[in-house]
Amino acid sequence: MSVVTKLDHMHDGAVAGNAAQRLFDAGYALHGEGRLAQALALYEQVLAIEPGHFDALHMTGVIAYQSKDPQRSVDLIGRALENNSRDAAAYYNHGVALQALGQHTAAAVSYERAIALKAGYADAHNNLGIALQELGRVDAALQSFERALALQPDHVHGHNNLGNARRALNHPQAAVECYERALALAPAYAEAHDNRGVALADLDSCAAALASHERALALDPGRGGAYYNRGNALRDLRRHECALQCYERAFALAPGDILVHINRGNALRELKRYEAALAAYQQALALDAQHPGAHLNSALCLLQMGDYARGWKEYEWRWREAQTDTDRRDYPQALWLGTPSLEARTLLLHSEQGLGDTLQFCRYLPLLARAGAHVLLEVQPPLAPLFAGFEGAALVLARGTPLPAFDYHCPLLSLPLAFRTELDDIPLGIPYIRSDAERVSAWSSTLGAKVRPRIGLAWSGSAKHTNDRNRSIALAHLLPMLSEDIEWISLQQEVRAADASVLAAHPEIRHYGEQLVNFAETAALLELLDLVVTVDTVVAHLAGAMGKPVWILLPYNSDWRWLVEREDSAWYPTARLFRQPEIGDWASVMLRVSEELDRRYCTAGAP
Fold it and tell me: Does the domain made of 437-602 have the CATH classification 3.40.50.2000?
């Protein structure tokens, strides 16, 4: 989002009547009319007479800023302040020019000096907030915006900027309210419409976000950022072709905007135009070869295409990307990525990202143990009971518990790079996750005698997952495939509010959510099933790692690990993939699954 700054043209303290002052007053009048060249000529005449004339230096600096020369503006207003350090407007304008140069710390100091001279200076409080937010001091910025609005409740830009701060603090609803207050004061304020749309997208109000961006563009058709944001809203609505058109327009207006290239690449990837997506990421990297987002998205595309040699290397950029570095672990011990030898050494493997990722990549532990490593495996707490006695792990720890001494560490998803994994040498060893016999016996008693085929269902993953709107399914979508010839077992630990009433109305789906207290229990229940039908969530990985037959329901453009167009999985030999033929088309997927279920389980009538 952009911010709004404002130059203050006020001057004071001059002595009227002399020749220099008459020239200045004439220049200032022309300046106020927007006749900058004529005003500048008169200011320069003043400075020829009085080189230290404060007002002429100040206003010449203002014209330099207005002429897109902020460095000259800083120099000229700085000279003016050497002659008069008691002028609040000059400090304010000095701050504006410094901010244009990206010197936010110096700008903040200048605004603070303006405020010290003029405590009720609402614009200075507003711009101080902008500088503080650029410096990452968002809480302090919010206080500055609130002070500006206390001084001037109708400060339109203050309401907009307060919305920006609240959104940065992850309060999107409060941000929307700020933007709407700005729009109540200035209905044609294109930036506030645009920013409101971004906050609405944070609230998953995608259609309302799109309408807000479109209003911004109707008011300001040359607003490149609004085209970019409109493209993002269209992507959220899965209208990727339209999104591409917006990114193209945004690129034409702002060819140096790296995010435009990256999100254009993401839209192309959603349309399965992978080579074109890679080209878009390369365009971003041509602008900034160290941009983490461009590298990471390039990695995901390469991995999806099966180019593991390049993909794993690029995937290490995830640790520099703000959205994915939350699992980063900084230890004094060295990161191990394949060398040196681990013979008689202790290696800490630590989980990252989701539960399914841990299940997918723990398969490397036996290889490490055979190489002589003493392996410590740290996993998310819900998985810890499942990993008791796991092959290759000398010790299994729940994340958050104290760590013993170790020599090296490695995140689980860096193991394919460490082992130089290619498509044809993925370590399988299926099953490498096993259920606990006592738990299986307990679940057998709970389920009772088996008289029909038993099929497990999982239809949604974590709502916090970045791709949840595409990968999860409403339970209602699964109802057409339910058959009386099959005993249906819910594998959901949690059921969303929208699905709870559907589940309650279908007692033929046996649900044990409260009993699935950890994934050791889920694994024991899976052991008693003939088949698992699931969306792309942790259940898919658990079934695959256990060697259970599993049918995975995938969106049109699936996660990278399921590769491109395949109906089988390179990672799980017992998996079968059912992909959407078109974006959002779950109905066709359900029809195919129903036909396969009828063919395999219903017509035969036997478990």
Answer: yes
